[in-house]
């Protein structure tokens, strides 16, 4: 399961982190992002509409890989699988969450911010981890330092990633992709600025190209 997750993340480059207030927005938003070249989408479970949004995207947009974010507990894992998520992302981990994830048919990208957290997750088989909150937890220098003793673990840094710093993260050998919300901000969603979202997605994708 980790291999498949690695393939999806590697081709993603940049993963939009989405907060969707209305399931009606899900499809036009996802289409705008896919049009711009970003087809791995994380829908955070922070709104009532999130699971319905995942269902919509999973059902109607086979070109997209839709996952859930802000996964906090075993119930979130179950609901994500039922909604059709193809991966799940957590900001950090608990023993309960990790135990439940072991029985789950969909891969988890668990969050870590310190060497001990990274080591514990690697011990449980997690070769791919979310580095969160990336910028606040030490940014590029921190990830570079972790990569010294633990080069096996590849990260998706998220939290404080911008078009200005994304390339610096992506240049690290232990970064497989980055996540961020800038190309689908609340303001852009409120205005239904689908063309602008596509433009920002295209720019974001270019950041990840060699
Ligand atoms: C989040 O917590 O919403 C994600 O990590 C995205 O963070 P960002 O808004 O700083 O990109």
Automatic annotation (TrEMBL):
Pfam family for this entry, one: Aldolase
Catalytic activity: 2-dehydro-3-deoxy-6-phospho-D-gluconate = D-glyceraldehyde 3-phosphate + pyruvate
Claim: Plastid is one of the keywords in the record: no
Keyword set, alphabetical order: Carbohydrate metabolism, Lyase
GO molecular-function terms, A-Z: 2-dehydro-3-deoxy-phosphogluconate aldolase activity
PROSITE patterns given in the database record: ALDOLASE_KDPG_KHG_1 (PS00159)
The organism of origin for this protein: Microbulbifer yueqingensis
Quaternary context: Homotrimer.
Protein's name according to its UniProt entry: 2-dehydro-3-deoxy-phosphogluconate aldolase
Listed CDD domains: KDPG_aldolase (cd00452)
Coiled coil location: none
Lineage: Bacteria, Pseudomonadati, Pseudomonadota, Gammaproteobacteria, Cellvibrionales
Keyword Lyase among record annotations: yes
Pathway(s) it belongs to: Carbohydrate acid metabolism; 2-dehydro-3-deoxy-D-gluconate degradation; D-glyceraldehyde 3-phosphate and pyruvate from 2-dehydro-3-deoxy-D-gluconate: step 2/2
Similarity field: Belongs to the KHG/KDPG aldolase family.
Enzyme Commission number(s) from the entry: 4.1.2.14
